[in-house]
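Supplementary Methods, section 5.1.

A reviewer requested that the exact input to the structure prediction be made available. We therefore reproduce it here, unchanged from the version used in the analyses.
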Amino acid sequence: MNYSTTNLSSASECDALLGLANKDKENLLYRRSNLNYRKSQVVATSVDFEADYAEVVSDLQSLTNALLTFPEGKRKEEMITDKMALEVKLRVMNEKKDNYGIIGILQREYDLAVIDESIAETDAFIAAIDTRKAQLVA
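The structure derived from this sequence is encoded token-by-token as follows.
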């Protein structure tokens, strides 16, 4: 972006802007570091989460099918209780699915890309201010 740095009339104005821009860049770098860490945690967790999710779905399907043919009695009541517990677990996992797995990874990657663009633009802003400051000092 072209910044209207020609409106700056003193090196002290440049220094003030450089201080703000460097602070912004520092914050962006910190956020990027945190996002990289969170992404690595999601990647590490997603494999286990996807395997657990598939296991719960499979167990629930098996139990549902078994209940259709099982005779009435205490064991069937226990199986119904087990099925309800699996349904609750699956519901909770569905709520967490956005934070873990491929969706969570892609969200973190997008957030990182946005921050990287912001860092690049902040660097361009700093360079423009530095250039104007050099012109004013010369």
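Helices lie at 11-69, 74-96, 101-137. These observations are discussed further in the main text.
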